[in-house]
Each structure stands twice: as structure tokens, then as C-alpha cells.
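Extended Data, panel c. Modelled sequence:
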Amino acid sequence: LIVDKTGIATAVGTVVVNGNLTIISGTLNFASSIVSVSGITDIYDTITVSAFGPAGGPDTFGGLVTVHPGGNWHAGSSVLADFNFENGIVADGVSFVAGNGLYRFTTHDQVVGGSLPLIFTDVELNSADVTLGTGMTIKGVLTLADNHLITGSHDVYIRSTGSVTRTRAWVDGNLRKYCNPGSQMGTQENA
């Protein structure tokens, strides 16, 4: 599917892309639809989510998602995002606004990186090791199931209101937790 138009194209209902999704110009708005892309996703302009998240399941990206220079990923702050990435995301565009909600990294080992700061509300890693190519901030909950979050030279920051839950997984590298100014104590995260 290629989006190359002036203005906004809005997805309606369930949209299945059996192949690649390329946004050359214009905006693709997921609104409250459920979108599934089996191939790679290349964003040269804008993907937005303007409604309160998909009803019935996450938007799923089977291939690598790349926000190219000049591109934008925008889930508004009032949006309860629900995304599933199966092969990673590279954010090298103008902006990456994750909104609120859950970003899942599943199925295959993958790299999450790029030149933009990645700030999520909730992140879940399940059945896939994730290697960071940039720093990551979690405002809510980082959930680790049966895999590893490998930071390399980068950091995972957990905000003071955030937390880490895990079963048989851990962070391999740098995990930092913010404490409120003036606070004498913080919560230890066992990740």
C-alpha cells in the first residue's frame, strides 16, 4: 500500500496490508481502525493515531518500521495507543510521539533505535530480545516476559511513577530510575 497524496487518508475498520506500507507524502490516520502490515513500513511523511486506540486488538507491524528523515510518528497524548512490533522500529524522522498506551515488541529479536528519543508510556517485551540503538524512557510499566532488553551503551530510564515487572527476563545493561527531587528514597527495580 502506497500513500502519496495531499492531505489525510483515514483508515476505516480492519485494514490488512499483505506486503509493504509506504507513506511517501500526506498523512495516514489510523483513527480507531485495526491495521495489520505484514511487510516493512516506510514513513517519509506522517502516521497519526487520532482516536482512543483500536477496538479489538493492536495495530501490528510484521516488518521493520522506519520513520525516515522528514517523517513523523504521532499518537496524540489523549490517544490510548496499542501497537505490536514484530521486527523493530527505527525513528530517524522529524518526530516520534508515542502517545499513551502500550507498545509491544514480540515474535522476533529486534532493534529499537534511531536518532530520535523514544518515550513510551508502557512497553512489553514478549518472546523477543530487543537491542536498543538509542535511549528509551518508560513513563509507566516496562513488562519483560521471557526475553532480554539489551541496552548496549544506551540507557533505559524509568520515570519515578513507573515500574518494571518481569518473569524470566531481565535488562542486560543500563537501567535507571528517576526519583522525585528532594526524595530520600526510591523503589528498587529488580530487572
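The mean pLDDT is 88. This feature is highlighted in the accompanying rendering.
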